[in-house]
Amino acid sequence: MPKIDYPHLAAFVVSCDSPSMAYAADKLGLLPSTLSTRLSTLEAQIGVTLFGRKDRSSYPLRSAAWLYNRSVRLLLAEEYLRLASQNNGSAPPKCIILHIDVDYIWTAISYAIIAAIRSFHSKPGRPYVDLIFTGARAFGAQKAPVPLLSDTSTVGKLEIHHSAGEPASASATIIVSDHWVRLIHAGGAFSRQDEMALEIAIPDLPGTLQSDTKFSASNRMATSRISATDRSLQDLAGLLDDLQKADLLLPRLIVPPRLSGQGTNMVPVAQGPACNVIADISGEHEFLANLLDEIRNRGDGALPFAGATDFRPEIGLKQIATVNRVMQTGSMASAARVTGRTAAIIPAQLEQIERVLGSKLIERRKSGSEPTDCARQLHPLFLGIERSFKDAFGERSHIAAVFEQSIRVALPVSWSADSLTSECMAAALSAFHAEYPNCRIEVVEGPRHVLHRGVQTGQFNIAIVGRIDPQVGSLPIGRSEDVVLIVNKKAHFRPKTDRVTADELRNVPLILAPTQLTMHQTLLTALAKSTVQLEPVMRLGSVPLIVSVLRRSPLGTILPASVMIKEIQAGIVEVFPLDHLVPPRRLWAIFSTSDTLNDTERALIGHIKEAFQRALGSIAFPRNFELQ
User: Fold this and answer.
1) Can you tell me the distance from the alpha carbon of 166 to that of 205, in angstroms, rounded to the nearest whole number?
2) What's the chain's average pLDDT?
């Protein structure tokens, strides 16, 4: 997992919400250069570029929306953890689920909701409010996060959004008559007479706001050219570019403050369509009514709540994980072994979190470590925070690929020994780079279990393997080159037929690398089932070293023929097909099923598949050998 903690997330959130990096640094009590270094470290840790530059100003990219909403959720949970312990000594085992479209991020509505949740949490006995941003357009996720308190009873649910026209229920209205505004670039003059001539663009707005926008015939703006764009509200640089060409039309409360502060003016739209912010309510409870009142109190001001996301976390993610491991294993010593830490670290971490919470969590007994009542009450929240952190950062490779920033590919260790396979992959990566020139490519190697685990945890976008586990998604790539017996001519080996049998193979002095190469492991496993045991004369972990030794010595090995194509053509070694000892080598692209493959990932898999289809059979082998 990335080596980041709550302070990094809090600094990132403040940086997104501040009008400038200098303002954010001052708010955090840091030098601008220090904040810049911290944000660069954060980007490097998670492998996603979060900020861009335009006209000497830094601004959050669309990819930052992914981390922003997950960071706010974790920061709200940490703050609630402290408040619940200080107010009651325990957390109520109930929660409220609050859904809001991800396109509201960095808008006054989002700030009003976050500020309302924090105020709601500050009062004793209140359930936890789980703020879940939904929608796939802004950051590429295909489904909403799992509720943080998934095993806890839910008081009720709220879904907050805009509504065109009159709301169905006055009791569910949060903000009445949010006015439409026309966002105008300050560089251009605006007057009533040229209002008719200016073009107007409507960005991609949450819910049905864009499609439901209607203007009466009496409204002069109805005769203007109004066009819809694909630009999301998180694409701040793109919206600034659009403002050079057209005015933007959108509700006042969802104008991103960074956008309104970048040399723009807001002009109210006369006789604009009715537009209200409402809440769809599921469940009846006074807590839901209290939360709605909190949101109304902050939403009616119509201005962004500047301090909504000024979080000051005091608990670390490592401390939360330590509590979970102690409660899971039943002792501090066992928790230290599980986490790979020294025995002294565990009590030190516990002491720090207990000091912040003001409550004892773990009691030392002769029989082990006993959690207190407070720890048992808080445990669901501890577990939810740790799981949500892991889930969020398990998406980071997928998110980087969504925005064409980078893509991570994992290959078996044996591929470095397979010339044909390496050539195919090189051709695929070259074609992919030509299609996505700005996307960074990273290729790593590892054994089969590491590749499967990597795609399951989101460490790799895709991995290419010869065998697949059912827990991952997969797409067939096609056939790869089969392995063969390669023997130095000095060995004077001649099989009875064109194919080498298991008994004949046993008489060949072999060099193998069974612990490094999957193809050697597969061969030994197949022979063991036939009660044939192979004992190599050399075990070499380096395939180039195997090839070098084989050039000089009367020995043999099992590799794809293309690995030693030069030696074959020079007549130094001979190649013999194996008698069905190893099954055909079929390749699969595996990926995590937690997110649907995006266009970037599918494009790379397509290039790999095409490269293998073109390459097989294209290598010139000796006359007496045919690639099977």
Assistant:
1) 19
2) 83
